[in-house]
């Protein structure tokens, strides 16, 4: 089935919370029509309502909901309810509950508190999911399966998980001698002589804990596949997804993405707490990450708040215009939906004060309701955008397993490693210029990108250095930094420095690393007449790698500390391409200048071929016949810019002049026929 003929607009709808209020349920559908909603996510935490006692299923209320959605012209994203087991299940089958690292079985509480390895839990959810699929396989409202909710890698230390982990290790390593070598277990006499001795509770064994994290992620994925199986079998034409989050939950989403039909995520930026431009850049990075999970396909914004959250500690009201702007930012970066948690505020429970389209006031006169209503009208006008994608000339490697390995590493500076933040800092200059970036992992295909950037790529899996070498040799441009190429997939340090292919590609080798305290700053200076035309002095902090060029050209050097004069930025011509190395953690100004000059030299520019004034960001979605430019202003003042000729205002249909003015906290969308 064709998934997107229009942009989706909707919310998590907890219909089952209001079964004793038919007046409210009837009103909900009237309000959905007013807000131009066309899809609702339902059933996410409904296990206790679908199976109130073991083996006794009650679908009448869900039948009524599905029918009402269809009658009112709305579609259903139907969830499986595994994220929140009913109390009877936890009580009768305590082995389904997680065990902490101290061996204590956890009580029934909160959500996502179950063991992914539990055969009973899997049996019960598969039975329920089978009935859901059989019952609604032909229902006209059903357009997408929403499997569980916000999977996390919370670790379980029960016997089943330990048995599963040891079996996973046996498949990975084959025998204990190979495992002991891979883990360097002779250190501190940690050598294992029997598989039963392995317990993942020793943070001093980095290889062990890295593999435990890999196993935990794989086990969550295995559970997802198990509970998805009846959906795939019974409803092969209904696509499947599960909602991702920011990449801080211990899951390797790259592996999950191989098994979903459309990627989606839950986005909750902290607007108006610090610099909104910084928040906008961070949010854009995560949007591009989720778009990149399924290359060439749109993603879904599955959850966002129409007003505030209640779990961030502080969550400020959105300023006028921010709801439209933040929602369309997702669309600009490749989303084909804007959806909310939640449709109607709950009366009780942990999230009763979380924002919603329909507040406790239940009025259509609220600012939030009217903002949602206006956005729904706008999304209807943007239906042609669903036929477009984003073509990025630049790729930035952000790799989950690399981050896990870095987090375990006890470096001379082990505080403030900031891998994710560093990736965003390298992303920022392109966001400022309106140049699209794909966020990829280290296993991705680099071909097709003109520029590939790999900040702090600490861990090199087998073949990675050779793939980078081939990419550069074939004409690509590669940028990497300090703390790159140091260890293999088991977190063992490479002997004799970098993997040989990386050393050839970069044209240098590293000798040692200085680390600075938070209050210490160093200076670096651009070399005269360097080919990028960098000029002047910049600051560095935290990390400063000392490298020796072999074939690389030095473009900038340290200008302070005892290593003044050592290279801090190099370029190496290799084959038909170029490889750059940044040896220190620098201020943002250096990265902005470096990437601005580099893209200029490479002829990479935004699709408008116009410079973006400070404060504006831009993304372009296009196909062979048309393109749409989303020009966004995340400041509190109006900003004007030139856009060239031939553009039309997408929302008004009026021909645009060669210049536009974007009001504060607003977005201008212009289209062009190609």
Structure notes:
The protein has 674 residues and is of the alpha/beta class. It is built from 17 helices and 26 strands. The strands form five sheets. Strands 10, 11, 12, 13, 14, 15, 16, 17, 18, 19 and 20 form an eleven-stranded mixed beta sheet that branches. Strand 21 and strand 22 form a beta hairpin. The longest helix has 29 residues. The radius of gyration is 26 Å and the shape is globular. The relative contact order is 0.09.
List the helices and strands and how they pair.
Layout: E1 8-13, H1 22-34, E2 39-42, H2 47-50, H3 60-71, E3 75-79, H4 87-92, H5 119-136, E4 142-146, H6 159-173, H7 176-183, H8 206-234, E5 240-241, E6 243-244, H9 253-257, E7 264-266, H10 276-292, E8 300-303, H11 322-332, E9 337-340, H12 367-381, E10 394-397, H13 400-408, H14 419-433, E11 437-440, E12 451-454, H15 464-473, E13 477-481, H16 500-506, E14 508-515, E15 522-526, E16 537-549, E17 553-558, E18 567-574, E19 577-582, E20 584-586, H17 588-602, E21 616-622, E22 626-633, E23 639-642, E24 648-649, E25 659-662, E26 666-673
Parallel strand pairs: 1-2, 1-9, 2-3, 3-4, 4-5, 6-7, 7-8, 10-11, 10-12, 12-13, 13-19
Antiparallel strand pairs: 14-16, 15-16, 15-17, 16-20, 17-18, 18-19, 21-22, 22-26, 23-25, 24-26
């Amino acid at each position: 089935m064709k998934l997107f003929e229009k942009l989706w607009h909707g919310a998590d709808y907890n219909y089952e919370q209001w079964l004793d209020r038919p007046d409210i349920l009837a009103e909900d559908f009237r309000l959905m029509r007013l807000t131009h909603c066309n899809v609702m996510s339902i059933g996410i935490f409904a296990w206790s309502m679908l199976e109130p006692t073991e083996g006794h299923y009650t679908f009448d209320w869900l039948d009524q909901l599905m029918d009402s959605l269809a009658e009112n012209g709305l579609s259903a994203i139907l969830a499986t309810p595994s994220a929140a087991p009913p109390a009877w299940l936890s009580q009768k089958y305590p082995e389904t509950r997680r065990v902490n690292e101290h061996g204590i079985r956890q009580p029934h509480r909160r959500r996502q508190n179950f063991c992914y390895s539990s055969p009973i839990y899997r049996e019960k959810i598969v039975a329920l999911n089978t009935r859901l699929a059989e019952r609604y396989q032909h229902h006209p409202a059903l357009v997408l399966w929403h499997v569980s909710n916000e999977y996390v890698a919370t670790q379980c230390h029960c016997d089943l998980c330990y048995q599963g982990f040891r079996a996973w290790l046996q498949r990975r390593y084959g025998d204990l001698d190979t495992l002991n070598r891979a883990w360097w277990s002779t250190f501190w006499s940690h050598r294992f002589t029997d598989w039963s001795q392995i317990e993942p509770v020793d943070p001093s064994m980095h290889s062990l804990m890295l593999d435990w994290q890999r196993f935990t992620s794989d086990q969550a994925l295995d559970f997802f596949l198990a509970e998805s199986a009846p959906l795939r079998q019974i409803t092969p034409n209904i696509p499947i997804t599960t909602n991702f989050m920011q990449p801080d939950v211990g899951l390797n989403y790259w592996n999950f993405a191989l098994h979903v039909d459309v990627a989606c995520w839950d986005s909750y930026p902290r607007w108006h707490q610090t610099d909104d431009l910084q928040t906008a850049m961070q949010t854009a990075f995560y949007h591009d990450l989720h778009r990149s999970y399924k290359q060439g396909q749109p993603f879904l914004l599955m959850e966002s708040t129409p007003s505030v959250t209640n779990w961030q500690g502080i969550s400020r009201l959105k300023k006028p215009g921010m709801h439209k702007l933040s929602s369309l930012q997702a669309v600009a970066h490749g989303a084909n939906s804007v959806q909310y948690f939640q449709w109607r505020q709950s009366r009780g429970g942990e999230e009763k004060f979380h924002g919603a389209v329909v507040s406790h006031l239940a009025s259509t006169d609220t600012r939030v309701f009217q903002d949602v209503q206006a956005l729904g009208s706008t999304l209807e006008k943007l239906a042609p955008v669903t036929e477009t994608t984003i073509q990025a000339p630049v790729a930035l490697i952000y790799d989950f397993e690399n981050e896990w390995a870095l987090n375990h590493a006890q470096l001379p500076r082990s505080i403030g490693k900031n891998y994710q933040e560093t990736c965003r800092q390298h992303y920022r200059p392109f966001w400022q210029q309106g140049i699209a970036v794909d966020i990829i992992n280290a296993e991705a295909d680099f071909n097709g990108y003109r520029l590939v950037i790999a900040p702090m790529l600490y861990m090199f899996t087998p073949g990675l250095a050779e793939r980078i070498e081939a990419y550069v040799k074939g004409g690509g441009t590669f940028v990497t930094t300090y703390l790159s190429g140091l260890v293999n997939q088991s977190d063992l340090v490479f002997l004799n420095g970098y993997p040989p292919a990386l050393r050839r590609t970069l044209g240098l080798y590293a000798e040692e690393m200085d680390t600075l305290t938070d209050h210490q700053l160093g200076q670096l200076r651009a070399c005269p007449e360097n080919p990028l035309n960098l000029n002047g002095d910049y600051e560095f902090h935290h990390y400063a790698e000392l490298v020796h060029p072999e074939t690389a050209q030095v473009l900038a050097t340290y200008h302070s500390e005892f290593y003044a004069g050592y290279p801090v930025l190099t370029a190496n011509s290799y084959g038909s391409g170029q490889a750059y190395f940044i040896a220190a953690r620098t201020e943002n100004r250096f990265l902005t200048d470096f990437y601005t000059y580099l893209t200029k030299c490479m002829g990479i520019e935004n699709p408008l071929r116009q410079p973006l004034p400070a404060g504006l960001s831009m993304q372009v979605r296009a196909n062979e016949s048309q393109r749409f430019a989303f020009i966004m202003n995340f400041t509190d003042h109006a900003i004007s810019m030139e856009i060239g000729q031939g553009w039309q205002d997408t929302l008004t249909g009026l021909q645009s002049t060669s210049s536009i003015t974007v009001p504060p906290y607003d977005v201008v969308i212009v289209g062009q026929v190609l």
